[in-house]
Amino acid sequence: MTADETITREGLAARDVADPLARFRDRFVLPAGLVYLDGNSLGAMPRAAARRVGEVAGREWAEGLIRSWNDAGWIDLAPRIGEKIGRIIGAAPASTMVADSTSVNLFKLLAAALRLRPGRRIILSEEGNFPTDLYIAQGLAALRGDGHELRSVAAADIPAALDENVAVMMLTHVNYHTGAMHDMAALTAQAHARGALALWDLAHSAGAVPLALAAAGADLAVGCGYKFLNGGPGAPAFLHVAPALQAQIRYPITGWLAHAAPFAFEPGFRPAPGIAAAAVGTPPVLSLASLECGVDIALEAPIDQVRAKSLAQTALFMRLVEERCAGHGLAIVTPRDGQRRGSQVSLRHESAWPIMQALIARGVIGDFRAPDVLRFGITPLYLRHAELWDAVEVLRDILATGAWRDPRYEARRAVT
Amino acid sequence: MTADETITREGLAARDVADPLARFRDRFVLPAGLVYLDGNSLGAMPRAAARRVGEVAGREWAEGLIRSWNDAGWIDLAPRIGEKIGRIIGAAPASTMVADSTSVNLFKLLAAALRLRPGRRIILSEEGNFPTDLYIAQGLAALRGDGHELRSVAAADIPAALDENVAVMMLTHVNYHTGAMHDMAALTAQAHARGALALWDLAHSAGAVPLALAAAGADLAVGCGYKFLNGGPGAPAFLHVAPALQAQIRYPITGWLAHAAPFAFEPGFRPAPGIAAAAVGTPPVLSLASLECGVDIALEAPIDQVRAKSLAQTALFMRLVEERCAGHGLAIVTPRDGQRRGSQVSLRHESAWPIMQALIARGVIGDFRAPDVLRFGITPLYLRHAELWDAVEVLRDILATGAWRDPRYEARRAVT
């Protein structure tokens, strides 16, 4: 649609009919009466996941018991799903593995990065990066001692901060708070030009935006299974190590599944060749099986179509907010430039918390991010354009009527 | 039964009828025609687990979506299950947490232990400890540098090896290979007398033998959810930190769920008070929910009854093997002294691999541990005495007929 075309719900419904991704919506369970705009926090459930988890429990575990590690291929799940995610993120073959949580994988790769750049003391990151990235770096720097430290600078200052003391530049590709997206190739090249490694957190990117880790020359990456990959609550995470680094890298956590011959039960650790050495312990099979269902859908969906629809939907949402919610103190935080934006829209409002609670109470599920942001994730695989119209109508009504000024929306909950 | 009483299958079946734990068998799914003696590797599936996992996927995830972190209490699962496991292992309240894998938890606690004993350089362990314990210690020592090292000695030499350079004594309570059990209280006291911390791996103990971590003065512990706790394949693991250490301990992996206010998204890490700081990242909810079902059964079963039946069944199995399989080259590895034995029987045989494959082909599921051990786990919650008779009959027949000398039993598989 052009900027001067009038938007109507009917027009949007017609776009949904013509949507080349429309067929994917039915691959997910979406409760009636909800507009789900939190797939960037927890993706919706693929129908296949419920079936698959039932089969893993009721047949593979219950009937197959220990034999299922071989007979049902449990032992292959983590590397196989890793390989599939590798294709989603544009990584070289045999460079991506599923293991642990994003936080643990960050620790593994950051610790390895410091060892690959001995003498350099700085982990360079961005102010406002997702806290676990900063915390993990702080914890590692404290563990290492020897003057290692995390240095966080504003996004614009990253290139200038890349000096000969930076061991690794650790950035989140799409910012969880603002939805702003970095230029991975450009920043990676700048890091390399100063001798630093580039570690990318793809938590808000994998499955949402086109990624080309190999082409960008990214050294290391981690990412999350339960956001745009729709892997299920707390799904295992992934990590990537560029092939050129695999022969030299030394992981800090050397668990038995990373051994060259785990079932030889040798007393001394010998790393498995390649990316297999990035594993640690026995992975949670039920959660892995669920993750694979989400990953399989992401592999099937043409990422260019996903991206085109994501850009159209984020632009639509911003325009509707501007047109229909003007004068209520909302500010759009997410970049207007599509090339600089991931797949979410963040709105700032001084009463963001109760407004989001009021939205949720009316079936529009986004989330709140401290201190003052309303966050709306756009998942093109299952989100309709007309739903964005409906969501903004609810937002408009809540703002116009002041319905959010209700004491019950003030109470904070554990997880937001 | 006394040593001179003749054992008959009928007599054993009568014992099964009188077994006070008999009612627990029906809480698990056990395939017809199998004798399952590998619950020390992967416990059988509680019937409740299949239901619960279906509910978490089909209702809490699919319908509740992100709201289930609060509304379905996902955020409380790991600490709640940890608290339950704490009761199973005889730990103080608020000292046990579910998180990550056993290997990752070992890393976290070993790294913390070295920081609690600065200046001491040795991680003391036992030759023949489970390899991941040794590998994790080796990896950590290499990461730390500064002369830190793993020193592994024979079990009998541990007390003498406890010198003023030992930071932490890391032992597995019940050995995975032999089934031999350490005296936790005595060794912990000896470690403390030399100023060392005691870290216990309870992988083959939790749910299988009475544990009293608080009474034993154990400082640190880790353990596994998928063995005698029947939590499901790759179920999340647990870790324990004695209350007296919780104010000083510094974990190396400081993820966002360990923050005092994870949803404040502060830029600097501040650890949560108490055991909550032992968390790292978002836990795998499907696998956690399954784990809780196994843990709940373990909490219900009186551990003294479990232990009495375990000792009777391990003794029975050894006696039947001696009486009925004599002359075929089997040697019993597991201690005869009940006080020194966990809940498994290990038999040595130079052809252990093909013999175990022949057993499995005939429905007797144990496992092989390199280089030459047949391992049989005893899970009193679902194992009948008469099944042990049947298992030994199959073993006797395989040995007497030489049925294991079949080429198809020679081929090794990925996981054994």
Molecular structure report:
With 416 residues, chain A is an alpha/beta fold. The first copy, chain A, has helices at 9-18, 47-64, 68-71, 74-88, 102-116, 131-144, 158-161, 184-193, 213-216, 243-246, 285-300, 303-324, 352-361, 385-401; strands at residues 28-29, 35-36, 45-46, 96-98, 122-126, 149-153, 166-172, 197-201, 220-223, 238-241, 331-332, 344-348, 364-365, 367-369, 373-377. In chain A, the strands form 4 sheets. Chain A has a 7-stranded mixed beta sheet with strand order 4-10-9-8-7-5-6, sandwiched between helices. A 4-stranded antiparallel beta sheet of chain A has the order 11-12-15-14. Chain A is globular, with a radius of gyration of 22 Å. The interface between A and B is large, with 96 and 96 residues.
Topology of this protein?
The structure is a homodimer of 416-residue chains.
Chain A: H1 9-18, E1 28-29, E2 35-36, E3 45-46, H2 47-64, H3 68-71, H4 74-88, E4 96-98, H5 102-116, E5 122-126, H6 131-144, E6 149-153, H7 158-161, E7 166-172, H8 184-193, E8 197-201, H9 213-216, E9 220-223, E10 238-241, H10 243-246, H11 285-300, H12 303-324, E11 331-332, E12 344-348, H13 352-361, E13 364-365, E14 367-369, E15 373-377, H14 385-401
Parallel strand pairs in A: 2-13, 5-6, 5-7, 7-8, 8-9
Antiparallel strand pairs in A: 1-3, 4-10, 9-10, 11-12, 12-15, 14-15
